[in-house]
Amino acid sequence: MCGIMGYLGERPAKDIIYTGLKRLEYRGYDSAGVAVLTKDVQTIKAVGDTSKLDLTKLPKSATIGIGHTRWATHGRPSAQNAHPHTYGDITLVHNGIIENYQDIKDSLKLSDLKSQTDSEVLAALINNNYQKGKISLIEALKRSLVEVSGTFGLVVMSPLESNQLLVARRGSPIVIGVGDIQNFVASDPSAIISHTDKVIYLEDDQIARVTRTSIEIFDLKLKHKNPNINRLSKSEAEATLGHYKTYLEKEIKEQPESLKNLMRGRVSQKGTVKLGGPNLDADDANNLEQILIIGCGTSYYAGLYAKYKLEEMLNMPVIVEHASEFRYRHGAYKSNSTLAIFISQSGETADVLASIQEAKRRHLKTMGIVNTIGSSVARAVEHGGIYLHAGQEVSVASTKAYSSMVSAILMFGAQLVYQRGGNSNITKEVAKELLMLPSEIKATFELHENIKKLTKQINHFEKWFYLGRNSLYPVALEGALKLTEVSYIHAQAFPTGEMKHGPISLVDNKHISILLLPEDETLYEKGISALEELIARGGTIFTISTRPKPKGSNYHLQVTYVGEYTEGLIYNICLQLLALEVATIRGVNIDRPRNLAKSVTVE
Ligand code: M6R
């Protein structure tokens, strides 16, 4: 959550920080600020996104500074609560949460704070330890970090030691960009990739001292550590809107391409799947007794869809857990024969990272399915994983990452069936369907105009139910989440068969049900029974099915059936387009819905 950008070099810091922050706004956009250092610190702050910042108020001559774009945790969005925060000789930007900030505030008897944030308390603590420069700033930072509990990605500067930025991390990502007589600090590489492709990812409980010409890494005892310089790849390059009005639409329409990128060199026309990333040898594969899939939001729903398919493919229990639940649950998992797969677009979600630690503690095998190369999840898992190569996802509402996640797990399942000497026809069938997906998704885009027209007729409904049975139930869940996020409509998904156990009491003329009818004959008929029950109670029904419009349905979309493993992905495209069109009519900020942030790096 929140974006951090820092610069020190020979160019005007304010411009470089500003453009970096613009690229980070997907992490939070309720307020922003920039501070630069000349003799003193000069700071500008504003409520809203970075466009509200008045850069003319900062001197061009300053060549060192820090900036922040915020997603509020402690204290409402306001100029006072926006970062950077200055207390005494310390100015800082902070991502994460200082859990014991109240204790620190009490023990330092802080009565002169300007904000309600935990971050300003941290600045006061460092300032207190610094004692006007009686010890070095890095020593003061070290002493302070030992005193705090919680999470931080942190950049600190002080006019008393004006040639350096100090950086620290615990649980909140920080990357240092290596330049030539200039260096950069950011919360993720997208902010600095236009300046350098050489980066150092700070590890938890490390401090870095960055000057214009040097980068030193230390542990919390200030013992030197060797920096590990990584090269960023092209897929992390900047995303631009092109001819689209929103990233949401662009990313929905990119799916044929993102899926091809996922499968390139991995899925063959001969019906084989070869993944180099998962690091499971023959014994590991054969000894597996269960799979645990863990994620949040859309990534969780991708896992839930996969559960239905993997259980059939592998004849093995597959358990799916919300990361926020798993980290505090005491489920019974067999340590050596359970594979825990962590799914995350950003690779930085705090609950997912904490769950990896929990899984390791229980001696489970850990593997990642991640979009962001070099991200914390990708680095934390012990048995490798699969990079999605979907390209940067800018829209807060996740779309192309979802289809890639589902496909990636199916690929993994298909490979595992083969490794375990299972039915080779399964591997072939999965490969065949996956290879057909890009063109079938493209064909589904032809329904977009029709969806636009239908949306105008149904946009006024206040209560939206999404219903699906079997593997279409997780598709319904994901569809409802998409609509909720981008249109602020309260949409809820249920297994079709659950309607009559309660939710049907809500059906009236303000309600519409989006009913996903499967290809399978028996399940289709059960869906038709649910349709009739809804009609009998005055409900309005929007059906999506591989067959023509059923009797009684008010609105209908007919989609293609690709095959049993991937069918849900085609329905999902329709639900993504539906959410996009409802949001367009309602005139909300589609790419940056209120109260949300792209990457949830706090608990
Ligand atoms: O980066 P992650 O995949 O770990 O993010 C998980 C969720 O926060 C994310 O999927 C969220 O639910 C999206 N806004 C959904 O569109």
Helix vs. strand class:
alpha/beta
- The CATH class of the largest domain turns out to be Alpha Beta
Distinct small molecules bound, one entry per kind: 5-amino-5-deoxy-1-O-phosphono-D-mannitol
Q: What is the beta-strand fraction?
A: 15-25%
**Which CATH architecture of the largest domain is right?**
4-Layer Sandwich
Characterize the overall form. globular
The count of strands amounts to 25
Q: Looking across the biggest beta sheet, what order are the strands in?
A: 3-2-4-1-10-9-11-15
Total of helices: 17
What is the percent of helical residues? Answer: 25-40%
Average pLDDT for all residues:
93
CATH fold description of the largest domain: Glutamine Phosphoribosylpyrophosphate, subunit 1, domain 1
Keywords:
single chain; 603 residues; Glutamine Phosphoribosylpyrophosphate, subunit 1, domain 1; Rossmann fold; 3 domains; eight-stranded antiparallel β-sheet; globular; binds 5-amino-5-deoxy-1-O-phosphono-D-mannitol
Structure description:
α8 (297-314) links the parallel β16 (290-295) and β17. The chain is globular. It is of the alpha/beta class and 603 residues long. 34% of the residues lie in helices and 22% in strands. The protein has 3 domains: 3-237, 4-Layer Sandwich (Glutamine Phosphoribosylpyrophosphate, subunit 1, domain 1), CATH 3.60.20.10; 247-441, Glucose-6-phosphate isomerase like protein, domain 1 (Rossmann fold); 447-586, Rossmann fold, CATH 3.40.50. 5-amino-5-deoxy-1-O-phosphono-D-mannitol is lined by residues 296-299, 344-346, 349, 352, 396-398, 485, 599-600.
